[in-house]
Amino acid sequence: MSILTEPVQVGTSLPALSQSDILSTASSIIRTYPSITSAYLYGSYAKGTARPDSDINIVLFIPDLRVGWDSRQVVGGVLIDLESALNRVVNLSVCPPDDFVKWIKRSWIPIHPHCGKPRDLSSETMLSSSDEIKGEPSR
Q1: Could you report the per-residue pLDDT of 93-114, keeping only the tens digit for each?
Q2: Among 53, 74, 107, 131, which residue carries the largest CB count within 10 Å?
Q3: Is the residue at 126 inside a domain?
Q4: What's the CATH number where 84 sits?
C-alpha cells in the first residue's frame, strides 16, 4: 500500500484521463489485493461521458468481506492507491458477490483480470452455487 503524499487535485485543470489509462492503472493496483475477486468501472468514465473533473467510479467484489479492521485496511488501501496513481477522486463501492445481479443495471467495464472482456452485463444470467439467478440474488 502506498501513502498519498500529494492531495488529490479537485476543481483544477487536470489532464484528461482515457478509459484505457484508468483500466490499466486500476488493474495493476487491484490485482495486488488477493481478497478482491473482481472489480468494475462504472459511471461517466465507463459511459464515455466523463469531464476532466469527473470522479472515477469503481465497484469491488470481495467474497469474504467481514466488517472490521481487515476490510477497512483493504478498502482504504485500494482507495489511497487508486487516488494517488490516478490523481482523481475515486468513488469506491464494495459489493458482496451475492448482491452482484442487483448491482448490474448498466454496462460496466471489467477492471480486474478475472472479469473477462468488456461487455454489457445487464442482460446476462448469473449463476449462484446452486440456483439460477434471474434479476435478483437468492437469499
Answers
A1: 887 666 666 665 556 677 765 5
A2: 74
A3: no
A4: 3.30.460.10
Residue 139 has pLDDT above 90, yes or no: no
Comparing 107 with 115, which gets the higher pLDDT?
107
92: burial class by Cβ within 10 Å (0-12, 13-18, 19+)? middle
Window from 29-33, 54-58, 74-78, 97-101 with minimum mean pLDDT: 97-101
**Extended strands (E) in the chain:** 38-42, 56-61, 90-95, 109-110, 126-127, 132-133
Domain range enclosing 81: 19-111
- Does some domain include residue 59? yes
Amino acid at 63: P
124 lies in some domain: no
> Backbone phi, then psi, for 101, in 5-degree steps?
-60, -40
29: in domain:
yes
